[in-house]
Structures are given as structure tokens and as C-alpha cells.
Amino acid sequence: MHDHGDHEHSHDHGGDGDGFDEEMHDVDWGRVRERQVARGEHVETWFDDAGIDAGDDVLEVGCGPGYVTERLAERVGEDGRVVAFDRQLGALASFTGDVPENVSLVLGDAESLPIAPCEPVTALVAYVLHHADRPARVLAELAGALPSGSRVFVAEYAPDADSEVGPPTHYRIAAGTIDGWLADAGFDVTDEFGYENATYAYLASVA
Ligand SMILES: C[S@@+](CC[C@H](N)C(=O)[O-])C[C@H]1O[C@@H](n2cnc3c(N)ncnc32)[C@H](O)[C@@H]1O
């Protein structure tokens, strides 16, 4: 079960038998992609709220099996670029079809960021932090690596709103906790969004 009281996650799942695979070592990535497609209508809302436009550079943290990445590639177009990374080779290997020309795939752990962009980017961190071992560390790494003018958009499931999709409520991270981690990492939180599917997001900038 998560302990969000400090910045480490314990891996004591307490035998709760909820079947949630926090580390996603044994997931069927095809099914994860199906879930990405099923919640696809929200993706354009994220991009709008994050201010992602044609020609932008985006760092997609914890991209999973690629559906969001493909939509991002369409949004930024041929003048933009998406660097998508994930710590699970299975996620990157399950990208279907050709990887779009404006997308680069990188295998790496966001807790030890494998990328240091030279130009400002928007970092998209969607539904990742409840899977991370040290979620606050992910945000601290981004704050340290992203150049001034960059933004980070973090989307998570709300623990106080049950929903058919998403992790069990005790794995979810409270909005106030994310807000605090962003501030601790040195980001300026500029906006907060609540969505109908029991999720929320924060937009923050690198000072
Ligand atoms: C639920 S999927 C979300 C995929 C995608 N962002 C989306 O919105 O559909 C979570 C992904 O985050 C990845 N992930 C979790 N912790 C990570 C970390 N520390 N570094 C890189 N990837 C991570 C997992 O491997 C998984 O592919």
C-alpha cells in the first residue's frame, strides 16, 4: 500500500488481493493500450489544458504502450517533437505499427531522469506517479532537468472519488499531495483541473 506521508512508497501490498499491479511488471500491454484508447476522449482535453500546440516539444514521462504518444505526435505535428520514455521495455515494445517520425522512444526510469532537454518542453506525466516507487523524486528530477520556460502537466486519479476505471482508491494520490510535491520540487503551480472521470491535473512551470 502507498504511504504518501513520506516520499517513498512501501511495497507492502498487505495481501489486499486487489490484483493491482503497481509496478506493471506482469501486465498485458495490449490491454493497457485498450484502456488508453477507452479513455482517449480525455487526452485532447489534457493537451488543451497543458497548452500543447503544433510545433511544441513534449517529454512524455511513463508513456506506456503508445496510444497517448500517437495522439501527442499528431498534436505537435511535423514541426514538433515527442520524446516518450518508460521504464518498462514491454511498454515500448508494444507500440503498434510504425513509430511516428516525430517521436523518439527512450527506455529509462523517471526517478533517475535519462533526458536533459536543451530547449523548453512540456512534460506530460499522466497516470504515472501512482505506479512510481518514489513519485516525489520523479517531480524533483524533472524540476532539476527541465530548462526555464518548461512546464509539467501531472494527471492522477482522485482518492475521494470512486470510479470504474483507475487504480483502487488506496493507491491513488490526493491532489494536495501532488501540489505539495510540485512546490517542494521548486515548480510554480499555475493551474489545477478537475475532470468528470474522477481524475485531476496540475499544470506547473519551471521558474
Ligand atoms: C498506467 S500507465 C500510463 C501510460 C500513459 N501515460 C497514459 O496516460 O495512458 C503508467 C506507465 O508509467 C510507467 N512508469 C511508472 N513509473 C515510472 C518511472 N519511474 N519511470 C518511467 N516510467 C514509469 C509504467 O511503466 C507505465 O507504462
Automatic annotation (TrEMBL):
Renumbered residue ranges of the record's region Disordered: 1-24
User: What segments bear the compositional bias annotation Basic and acidic residues?
Assistant: 1-16
Residue ranges constituting the Methyltransferase domain according to the UniProt record:
58-146
Is the keyword Ribonucleoprotein assigned to this protein?
no
**In Gene Ontology terms, what is one molecular function of this protein?**
transferase activity
Gene3D superfamilies given for it? Answer: Vaccinia Virus protein VP39
Sorted alphabetically, which keywords does the UniProt record give? Transferase
User: Which domain of life, per UniProt?
Assistant: Archaea
- InterPro entries assigned: Methyltransf_25, SAM-dependent_MTases_sf
**Record's protein name:** Methyltransferase domain-containing protein
- Organism equals Halocalculus aciditolerans
